[in-house]
Structures are given as structure tokens and as C-alpha cells.
Amino acid sequence: MSDEQNRITTLEETVAHQAKIIEELSDQIAEQWKVVEQTRQKLDRLTERFLTLEEQSLDAPAITKPPHY
After folding, report:
1. What Rg do the C-alpha atoms of the chain give, in angstroms?
2. In the Cβ-directed half-sphere of 37, how many Cα atoms lie within 13 Å?
3. Does 64 score more than 90 pLDDT?
């Protein structure tokens, strides 16, 4: 093979390797996005639950000493 053919082969190998890496990274990003969305949904549910509990605690009667003290 000529020097030019070796360069072309090396470039093709590099491009193929980079394409594979890009595809793998894209898959990892997609998986991470799913995790982020699940975490966001859990946080939203917990926030709603916290706000509900906070509202309920505001409506609760004040804690006072029992009449027999």
C-alpha cells in the first residue's frame, strides 16, 4: 500500500471509532435523561406531599397542657 492509502485507511478507522464512541455516548445521555426525569418526578411528588403535610400542620390545634395540670 502506498503512503496515501495508509493515511486514508487510518482516517477511516479513526472515523469509524469516533462514530462508535459518539453512538455509545448518545445512548448514555439518553439513559441519564431518563434518570433525571424520574428524579424530577419524585421530587415533584415529594414537594406536593411536603406542602400538603405543611398545610395540615397549620390547621392542627395548638398543643396545650391538659386540663388536669
Report:
1. 30
2. 6
3. no
